[in-house]
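Tokens in:
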């Protein structure tokens, strides 16, 4: 038997045989299984869980919500300030310091700038010296007058006893009266010097520029080192102002209304103003006055309008559109209270009128007890429990409970 030959054949490697599975193949198979499990979980999340009860909804309406005043006339204009000032110095001088910036809020009397006070200080020092000299002169005259009065009194006694001549006494009296007149002149000179000092103090104070009223700085017109003057000096080298301030509480609207339509505008008429910068912001306003003068070139009449709402967003020279509204009708105030709710949304639960309103996310319902009122056709007046804008379920089924999950039916009412 060829036993050794058979054994050698068994030891030979068969290269056509199928190789054993590798480790990489095992990982790929495991990843496929995990992906299938995740897909199954997602499918259950989308289709297997409870999607809630399908319902139709309606929106609660305010009673008389359509009764807003109608516009009888539209116009355009600008925001203006009734109180605005370009602040300047009372004297001509060189700016030493400017203490304001655009957008800064200033109070009445607050220092906005200072001018070089050298000349004003020198003038005040001279006035103070003149006042001191006048007062010292008063002291000298008073001393001499006191002596003259004593001499006159002594000579009066002596002349009565004929110890001195009458002429000597008369001379002493004249001297006394002259000094009295001189004292009065010196006192008046002192008063004049005091007034002159007060004027010099005003001159020093005029080098300080203060805010005439509280407001907001909208422009800064001068810089340190420039010359400012209350009057234009020409040449472009002299400023006429330090800055401009606006009293934001005095903002109003001015519009030009065509002559053909001015008859529709009345004082105290309600107005709705809309700034061009904020088209979705409706500002309540009212007519202040109709200016009794027409523009011949434009055939318009100017109308002043007061803004009833103050806001930092409102600034001078903004463009604005206004709608003049007709006055509210008296019967509008007699509208019944509450809101209008479709009768189909009101059901009985435990002997009480209730409705099911959607929550803020619109995915669950809240059971709300209602206090109902009058019937209004297909609707019902609800005095409490709902507000305008709430979404309520129409024809709620018996299985619908407080907190239940809902979905909108395909034909759900918007």
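Residues out:
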């Amino acid at each position: 038997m060829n036993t050794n030959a058979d054994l050698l054949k068994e030891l030979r490697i068969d290269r056509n045989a199928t190789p054993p599975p590798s480790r990489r193949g095992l990982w790929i198979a495991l990843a496929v299984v995990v992906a299938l499990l995740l897909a199954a979980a997602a499918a259950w999340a989308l289709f297997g869980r409870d999607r809630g009860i399908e319902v139709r909804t309606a929106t609660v309406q305010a009673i008389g919500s359509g009764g807003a005043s109608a516009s009888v006339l539209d116009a355009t204009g600008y925001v203006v300030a009734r109180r605005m000032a370009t602040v300047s110095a009372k004297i001509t001088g060189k700016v030493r310091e400017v203490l304001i910036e655009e957008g800064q809020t200033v109070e009445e009397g607050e220092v906005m700038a200072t001018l070089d006070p050298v000349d004003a200080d020198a003038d005040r020092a001279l006035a103070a010296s003149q006042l001191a000299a006048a007062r010292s002169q008063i002291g000298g005259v008073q001393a001499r007058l006191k002596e003259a009065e004593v001499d006159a009194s002594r000579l009066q006694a002596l002349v009565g006893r004929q110890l001195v001549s009458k002429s000597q006494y008369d001379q002493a009296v004249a001297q006394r009266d002259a000094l009295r007149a001189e004292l009065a002149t010196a006192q008046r000179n002192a008063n004049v010097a005091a007034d002159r000092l007060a004027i010099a103090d005003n001159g020093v104070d005029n080098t300080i520029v203060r805010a005439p009223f509280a407001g907001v700085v909208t422009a800064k017109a001068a810089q340190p080192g420039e010359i400012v003057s209350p009057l234009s000096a020409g040449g472009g080298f002299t400023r006429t102002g330090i800055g401009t301030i606006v009293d934001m509480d005095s903002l109003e609207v001015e519009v030009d209304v065509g002559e053909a339509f001015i008859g529709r505008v009345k004082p105290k008429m309600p107005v709705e103003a809309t700034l061009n910068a904020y088209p979705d912001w409706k500002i309540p306003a009212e007519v202040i006055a109709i200016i009794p003068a027409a523009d011949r070139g434009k055939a318009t009449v100017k109308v002043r309008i007061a803004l009833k709402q103050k806001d930092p967003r409102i600034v001078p020279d903004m463009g604005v559109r206004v709608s003049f509204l007709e006055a509210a009708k008296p019967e509008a105030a007699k509208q019944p209270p509450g809101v209008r709710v479709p009768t189909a949304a009101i059901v009985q639960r435990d002997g009480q009128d209730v409705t099911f309103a959607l929550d803020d996310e619109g995915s669950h319902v809240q059971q709300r007890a209602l206090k109902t009122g009058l019937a209004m056709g297909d609707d019902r007046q609800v005095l409490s429990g709902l507000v305008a804008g709430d979404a309520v379920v129409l024809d709620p089924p018996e299985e619908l409970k407080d907190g239940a999950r809902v979905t909108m039916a395909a034909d759900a009412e918007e």
